[in-house]
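Handout, section B. The chain below has 232 residues.
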Amino acid sequence: MYRARVERIVDHTKNFRELFLHLLEPTEFSFRAGQFLTLHVPTASKPALRAYSIASSDQDRTSLQLIFKYVPKGVASDFAWQLKANDEINFTGPFGKVFLKEPSSQQIVFLCTGSGVAQHICFLRSHFNLLAEKDIFFFMGLFDEAELYYEAELKEIQKKYPKFKFAYVLSQASDSWRGLRGYVQDHIESLNYLKIPTDFYLCGNGMMIKQTRELLAAAGFETSHITYEAFD
């Protein structure tokens, strides 16, 4: 069991909140990029256990970042939205075996939805220098413009590494939206993944993962190069 203090809270949007945590006891937490922890949410009877991917770099052993999507009447959402700076939380971990493939293929495609970005941003924060020579495409699926977040950081990565490309894909965009529409899986055909050695990483909505895997399998793509984790 680990105990951590809430150092800072960032509300990226109405529905997405990020907690910045500092380890108290034990004072260090070791994990590999792609893993998750289990939050112990206090309830009247016994703690409710909820899994959350770690968004921070795995090189930081004393602090953590977690991203929450608000779920109406969700016990973890209610808990996270009641937290204040200096409050404490308990968790166990790390868990999970979703890691970056080594060596990576020449082209890497990240498809994430909602808070599923946590796992993929952890990959980037932890290993981007190792991937800088790769062609990386990062598609983040959200409902509409009001849900956009992490844009500043993604733009900074793109500015530093020209081979990194990212795009938001909105399923309920307004008429004024000039970016991609629909779902993230709708926009991978242009990546020529059958002729360029490619690794796919999928994280988020289970239906997105199911449809993407079916699409790739129907095209004859080698399924061993698809890594996924559902956030349902």
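Note. The mean pLDDT is 96. Compare this with the example in section A.
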